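Input chain follows. Return structure tokens only.
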Amino acid sequence: MAASEDPSERSPYRRILLKLSGEALMGAGGAGIDPETLERFAGEVRDLVIDGLQVALVIGGGNIFRGAGLAAGGMDRVTGDQMGMLATVINALAFQSALEHIGVDTRVLTAIKMEQLAEPYIKRRAIRHLQKGRVVIFAGGTGNPYFTTDTAAALRAIEIEADVVMKGTKVDGVYDGDPMKDPNATRFESLSYIDVLNRRLRVMDATAISLCMENRLPVMVFKLTGENNLIRAVRGEPVGTVVS
């Protein structure tokens, strides 16, 4: 982008929070982190930074550990959730490494103190990093059990005054049914927060949607694996569903 070009001419947003599931990093594998997938996502985030956007991320940990699943099998829920928070830190460090490998200045901020690995989360520090053009990755969830990474994403987006939460998924938006099972499922171009809650649509969990509704924070749900879909979504093209 030319130095004189206004980023707002390329995107309606100035500061975004991108929410990725841990499963998105698996690629075609059944678990863990696929290097090629990680490299591709890092490249797309770099393109956003080049476009002049301030970018923050929240990455789930489901590719490594799912605390809720083991809790259902008898493990203490708090312990399981704490292990899940640590899994998000692993993914955040991997993404940081991939970004820095391609020249993107990055900081990982954690809700759980672990200074030898990352900085502790402080709102003003996070915003300052973003203002300096660094990608900020929030890890460790909210630091509390019983809250999902969707809720962590909504909370952090509100705190840093992001313009939108971009949620990358396996499908190209929000449907009135499961498009993987029902060929007649209809995709919504836009929805209200109340519609999502009343219809119990699987966008984000109810706590996250309620936070977004109370703070008028829009959520864009789009297919992460489509060609340049992240760039297109950030530039305002109709590639998913907007909840507002």
